[in-house]
Amino acid sequence: MRILITGGGGFIGSHLCERLLGEGHDVICLDNFFTGSKENIRHLLGNHRFELIRHDIIEPILLEVDQVYNMACPASPLHYQYNPVKTTKTSVMGTINMLGLAKRVRARILQASTSEVYGDPEVHPQTESYWGNVNPIGIRSCYDEGKRVAETLMMDYHRQNNVDIRIARIFNTYGPRMAEHDGRVVSNFTVQALRGEDITVYGDGSQTRSFCYVSDLVEGLIRLMNRDNFTGPVNLGNPVETSILEFAQRIITLTGSSSKVIFKPLPADDPRQRQPDISLAKEKLGWEPSVDLETGLKKTIEYFTGVVRGK
Ligand code: NAD
Ligand code: UDP
Fold it and tell me: 2-178+212-239+273-290 falls under which CATH superfamily?
């Protein structure tokens, strides 16, 4: 198949490009390189089945493809809050453009949605039937509401135009090729620990997240894309939940660092708890994560060790 991956130069997108090329597909990677990097895909550039297009999805584009993974969107709070209006445009206008493309060429399209559609959830763990608790006017809203509209657009193009859609609600994912300065907890803590700097826990660290290793997530995305008669939305994430303070201590232990934990103010609207219920993914996709946190973190630490040493 010929497969388009928007945001293919980013963290998750680059792993998806690599995996789909490995399966023998033709891959078109489209990216505006706002948060992604050519470094992430440099090793793929020599492959004759790989094409790279610098393009912003808020502008229309016509390509003949069989499948579209719409991954383009800054994902870390630091990046998506840098230009919040642009973030909303990427999720709304960008998704309209990709749905228009899918409609014209009859491609199947998968939208990278997020656990953020549940906001600061009052239902725990989060199931797909939960409608969420999202602040529509806060500093996270450009991302959360943008993704909620992207889901709405997917469902409406499906109902109105019969577009073949898939919606993945991705929970916190980590691994090699996360950007060093993206401000996310995994990259921040790992780089701080490797440099012997203080580990910055926001709030008292009692808030929770559940971390999924990137290869598991990519497997889930591919299974969802290729599963017939199932649009989702479906949660994709690792249900093993940890508090941020426990997570800091774990990183310190695994890196053997002398760093100390310091506490900083909790950002506005920071969700207090997050854990996916993955019953639906198990039932419909036969999917569940297989990489445990320690194994995944060791690989991530190895990657960031190279980055910190300037390799
Ligand atoms: P990332 O920032 O590494 O990748 C996003 C990519 O999209 C980058 O390469 C960026 O340059 C590109 N991009 C951004 N805006 C664009 C635009 N307007 N036009 C073209 N390209 C654009 O982030 P990631 O962690 O790889 O996330 C990928 C997708 O998965 C995002 O849609 C994100 O919302 C979603 N997601 C990620 C997580 C996670 O934990 N990593 C969790 C939930 C959802
Ligand atoms: N966090 C933290 N220190 C950091 C970066 C993040 O304590 O240096 C916290 C953040 O407040 C949140 C959690 O870690 O509670 C996860 O943050 P991240 O930005 O990685 O993801 P998200 O909040 O979007 O799930």
Answer: NAD(P)-binding Rossmann-like Domain (3.40.50.720)
